[in-house]
Specification:
The complex is a heterodimer of chains A (102) and B (257). Chain A is an all-alpha fold and 102 residues long. Chain A contains 6 helices and no strands. Chain A has helices at residues 5-17, 22-35, 45-54, 56-62, 68-78, 91-98. Classes of the chains: A mainly alpha (102), B mainly alpha (257).
């Protein structure tokens, strides 16, 4: 999946599933990602899934959206099921490799 | 006594650089990855072989001055190539498509090239390249500036990434061992940058130059800190942490930023 594409898909679904406008939906998602130390352009599916499940409900409640479970379910449904491998040359992947035994 | 501690600090860092450098180069043979090759070579050439070759004449009092001269020149070439590979590693790994980072790398490279050539040309027969006379001072300072940029940049990037990963660690997105690797390498490179700064202040500030023992003690201690953190960072632990999502954080963990 191209950089940022997963973010866009989820942000658009968040906009449809709630009364947030485009800017608010993207901003809310960005805040949740930032709290997790993630970059919207370099997201792995499992990270995005984790943020939607754990951090986004809190952000939605703050914005007056009570039915967070239904929203989360809709967002998870639009995420691709296959998990993408971590980008080989990201600092995380490189440093993980630098400590490996082989 | 101070000289002995200074030597211990230098040898500790040199040995750690050799071991970690060799390990990373061995790893690069399997993975064929450029980053491990760059960092491995940088450590081997600058911290390891270059440093060892550079201090050898000091332990061989009867050495022919021409051989000592050649040894210092060889050491300087090896070290400067190694120093230059460090900011290239940082550019390649942390900021591969960033214009300002390319500029910073080129700046560091320019200082190193100017310093290396200047030191090579002005080094008189019978003098140590590590303690250049008046003619070599400006070149040594240029070289130190290039080294400082590389080390400080590496440290800032690595510690900044560590702070970012701490948040991901709390959510179970990354393993603790890799997260800590950024911290230890950050400490190692920052310690190195302070050593270069310390050497530069010793050359520039008379009050520091008057107290050489204290300056060398600081460098020695930083060398030991650097050696320890480098070893901890790049030798795999006995037990790897869980890497699965959610392994380190219970479901429902909320982090408001």
């Amino acid at each position: 999946m191209a950089e940022g594409q997963a973010f866009t898909i989820v942000a658009e679904e968040l906009e449809r599933a709630t009364n947030l406008d485009r800017l608010q939906a993207r901003g809310t998602l960005r805040i949740a990602l930032k709290a997790a130390g993630l970059n919207p352009k370099q997201l792995r599916m499992k990270e995005l899934r984790g943020v939607i499940e754990r951090l986004l409900p809190g952000e939605l409640l703050v914005r007056g959206i009570d039915d967070t479970e239904a929203v989360v379910a809709r967002l998870l449904a639009v995420l691709p099921r296959n998990d993408d491998p971590i980008e080989d040359e990201s600092p995380l992947a490189v440093f993980r490799r630098l400590g490996s035994r082989t | 006594m101070i000289d002995l501690i200074a030597l211990l600090g230098l040898l500790a860092f040199s040995a750690a650089s050799l071991l970690v450098g060799a390990r990373l180069l061995g790893l690069a043979r399997h993975t064929r990855g450029l980053p491990e090759r760059l960092l491995g070579l940088s450590l081997m050439l600058a911290g390891g072989i270059g440093t060892m070759v550079g201090i050898a004449p000091a332990f061989l009092p009867g050495l022919d001055p021409r051989v000592a001269y050649a040894t210092y020149q060889l050491s300087s070439i090896l070290c400067h190539v190694g120093y230059a590979l460090l900011p290239y590693f940082v550019l390649r790994v942390f900021r591969p498509r960033t214009t300002w980072a390319m500029g910073l790398f080129l700046l560091s490279l320019a200082f190193l090239a100017i310093g290396a050539v200047g030191l090579a040309v002005t080094l008189p027969l019978g003098q140590s390249i590590h303690h250049p006379g008046d003619e070599g001072r400006i070149w040594q300072l240029a070289s130190l500036m290039g080294r400082f940029i590389g080390n400080a940049w590496a440290g800032i990037e690595s510690l900044g990434y560590y702070v970012l990963l701490r948040r991901r660690l709390a959510l179970g997105f990354v393993d603790r061992e890799t997260t800590n690797r950024f911290f230890y390498w950050g400490v190692c490179t920052i310690a190195g940058s302070v050593v270069w700064l310390n050497m530069a202040t010793e050359m520039l500030i008379p009050a520091v130059a008057a107290n050489v023992a204290a300056a060398r003690m600081v460098s020695a201690l930083l060398g030991i800190v650097s050696a320890c953190s480098l070893s901890v960072a790049f030798f795999p632990g006995a037990r790897r942490s869980e890497e699965t999502l959610g392994a380190e954080a219970p479901k429902g963990t909320s982090h408001r930023g």
